[in-house]
Design goal:
The protein is α+β, with helices and mostly antiparallel strands and about 350 residues long. Helices cover about 55% and strands about 10% of the residues.
Length: about 350
């Protein structure tokens, strides 16, 4: 599993109504703090001292809340079914960087980074629980607060999705008129990356809602549908020289700070390209992806045969029918689609 997938899985175990979440709520209600590690391994055992090991101690919210009355850390098994250790004193590597201030939170962040296990830090002063995993940190929120945040995120997500559609529409017009540049392609890529990241934020927030997050998941999925495909098609059309049909170029964007995404010059440097104003003739992977009813293999054949949007747009039904896997019926459908694209996109551009 990826780091993000593992983090989301940990948040799912802490959704409202789950046993682990009930134990956190009991600890907060008691006015106590706690440090809880969700899993154990050799790295954790090597820095855990004192306290006591438990045998055949099944996890329950009440039992964990009682053990939290002691100062030391609580260690669960990987499945969260057993309590392995309580009142443990943890001594993680002090050279591990942390931005936290309190001793419990500094230990939690360092343990999360060194152990590859999620760590809970519950503050008695603030009455809040934070989840640490690797370089990630998230506060557990109550459902009403979560819904308010999710609604705000949805407004932002919808806005950037519209901006992405506008940028992609502009790029199509430029490809049809043979005026597309590398900068135009990167403008679409920037917007897809922003939509993808906001969608991931909504997904993480929805996890905290537990079963109540089902409708949020549906709305989020609707708004991000097709975004990954657009990213990959842009990469194949404009960054092929970077390897793996250009898709590999996108990996450098993962977890990059937002300023790197907004800064077009910096982004082009990360992607290993230059000359943003340079005209580009893409092979047309994105253009043929919109043709309805075509298998992937036939779309690939169209790209391989014509190699650029202008030749494809000018092709007759006979030309199209000569491509492997197309035939007369599909040639008619393709020509009808291309005529529609022609009518929609051969008109003056307006600024986004």
């Amino acid at each position: 599993m990826t780091e993000l997938t593992t983090f989301i899985a940990a948040l799912t175990r802490l959704a409202p109504g789950t046993p682990l979440r009930r134990s956190v709520e009991r600890i907060i209600q008691q006015g106590n703090g706690a440090l809880v590690i969700l899993g154990s391994n050799a790295e954790i055992e090597a820095v855990a001292y004192g306290g006591f090991k438990l045998l055949d101690s099944k996890f329950s919210p009440a039992r964990m809340a009682e053990l939290a009355k002691m100062d030391g850390a609580i260690i669960l098994d990987d499945d969260g079914k057993w309590i392995l250790r309580a009142n443990a004193h943890l001594l993680p590597d002090p050279s591990i960087k942390t931005d936290e201030t309190g001793a419990r939170f500094r230990t939690a962040e360092r343990m999360a980074k060194m152990s590859a296990r999620p760590v809970l830090a519950i503050s008695e002063e603030r009455g809040q629980c934070f989840v640490f995993y690797a370089d990630r940190k998230q506060r557990l929120s109550n459902p009403s607060e979560l819904l308010a945040r999710i609604n705000q995120e949805f407004q932002t997500l919808d806005h950037f999705r519209q901006r992405m559609v506008q940028a992609e529409d502009r790029l199509t017009r430029l490809e049809v008129t043979d005026e597309a540049t590398l900068g135009d392609a990167i403008a679409v890529l920037q917007r897809t990356e922003l939509v993808r990241r906001i969608g991931e934020r909504v997904e993480r927030l929805a996890v905290d809602l537990g079963e109540e997050g089902h409708m949020v998941d549906l709305q989020q999925a609707d708004l991000v549908t097709g975004v990954e495909e657009v990213r990959e098609l842009i990469a194949r059309d404009y960054f092929q020289e970077n390897g793996d049909c250009g898709v590999e170029a996108l990996r450098v964007l993962d977890d990059r700070p937002l300023q790197d995404i907004y800064d077009t010059e910096r982004l082009s440097g990360l992607l290993g390209v230059e000359g943003l104003g340079r005209p580009v003739r893409p092979p047309g992977y994105r253009l043929v992806s919109g043709i309805p009813g075509l298998p992937r293999s036939v779309r690939e054949n169209l790209v391989d045969y014509f190699r650029e949007p202008q030749r494809l747009m000018a092709a007759s039904e006979a030309d199209l029918g000569s491509v492997s896997g197309v035939g007369q019926t599909r040639a008619r459908t393709i020509r009808r689609y291309l005529d529609q694209v022609e009518r929609q996109h051969r008109h003056p551009l307006t600024d986004l």
